[in-house]
Write a structure and sequence with these properties.
The protein is α+β, with helices and mostly antiparallel strands. It has three domains: about 55 residues, no CATH class; about 130 residues, no CATH class; about 80 residues, no CATH class. About 40% of the residues lie in helices and about 15% in strands. This is Transcriptional regulator, AbiEi antitoxin, Type IV TA system.
Length: about 325
């Protein structure tokens, strides 16, 4: 703790240890139990020695207040059985890079806690498992909490992919989803988790597999194929094994300035070593014009020996079963 802490002399070792364990955040009720009156707390806050966090909760120093201290204060304010949840829990679990402007805590439905500025309180009929030194809803339930509040499919795919990258197990996530009576995007979540063995890694790849390949009857490519070419390990987003066609999906966030030097080297290497063609698509091709993209992929596959036919998804679809050349 900083010099601004200067704890009251009447605090014994047990109380001081509690203050330390609570990240220098305490309630006025705790201070009263330790023999420090509300007026003393008020004077210290008024003089700037201590700082007010939430109603009845202070941080006992004058320095910068960290996010962890605000989160600790939120838990102390919310009381028994409270746990960080939603975006706050996702930050703790490493699913999101930033915690957001508001702290979010969940409490059992039989309790009532008044929200405070910057603090969102969610009451739950069934409190999920929570634990940790900073009491937090478990990672599986946190992912489902996030999914349940997402508006778009892309947001759902993004958060699920991020969660899987942190080590969340698809089977456990699906099990927890089955235990929820109500859950938005349940069908999409089930589809995504079912595809986890195929290594779908991004919203763009999910859309490609769904809207380009499956919707147009194209053969399913193997996803996230790693292999050694020309002395280097490379990984392709999707490979049509045996047909010599590779698909690379370049999302704007991954390559904001277009193809990279490594992309060019990789494409050249597979042409030389494997006589395979690489088709590259971005968000516009997959999300805005999946039919034209499917037509081009189908043409590439037929040029390499595929004897199947693509399927038109609607009467306006750009795919032609007998098309021999790319439409774009």
């Amino acid at each position: 703790m900083s010099d601004g802490a200067r704890l009251p002399p009447q605090l014994d070792d047990v109380a001081r240890e509690t203050v330390s364990r609570q990240d220098a955040v305490v309630t006025t009720a705790q201070m009263q139990a330790w023999g420090v009156s509300r007026s003393v707390v008020a004077r210290r806050v008024g003089s700037g020695q201590w700082q007010h966090l939430w109603r009845g909760v202070v941080v006992v120093h004058s320095g910068n207040v960290t996010w962890r201290q605000r989160a600790r204060g939120a838990l102390l304010y919310a009381g028994r059985d409270a746990a960080l949840s939603h975006g706050s829990a996702a930050f703790i679990h490493g699913i999101v890079a930033a915690p957001g402007s508001d702290l979010v805590v969940s409490i059992p439905v039989n309790r009532v806690v008044t929200p405070q500025p910057g603090l969102v309180v969610r009451r739950r009929r069934v409190m999920p498992y929570a634990g940790g030194r900073l009491r937090t809803v478990g990672v599986d339930s946190t992912v489902l909490d996030l999914v349940d509040q997402m508006r778009s499919e892309d947001e759902v795919v993004g958060v699920v992919c991020d969660a899987l990258r942190t080590g969340v197990l698809p089977g456990r996530l699906l099990m927890h989803a089955g235990q929820r009576r109500l859950l938005r995007h349940r069908a999409l979540l089930t589809e995504l988790l079912g595809e986890s063995s195929q290594a779908v890694e991004s919203p763009l790849e999910h859309r490609y597999a769904r809207d380009v390949e499956r919707r147009h009857g194209l053969p399913a490519a193997r996803a996230q194929v790693s292999e050694r070419v020309d002395g280097r390990w490379i990984r392709a987003d999707r490979v049509h094994v045996g047909l010599g066609v590779r698909i690379e999906l370049d999302g704007q966030l991954a390559h904001p300035f277009g193809r990279t030097d490594d992309d060019t080297w990789r494409d050249n290497a597979v042409v030389i070593a494997r006589d395979e063609v690489t088709l590259r698509y971005r968000w516009r091709h997959v999300a805005v014009d999946p039919c034209a993209t499917a037509a081009q992929v189908a043409a590439a596959l037929r040029s390499r020996g595929w004897e199947g036919n693509a399927t038109r998804c609607s009467h306006t679809c750009a795919v032609s079963p007998n098309q021999k050349t790319s439409s774009r």
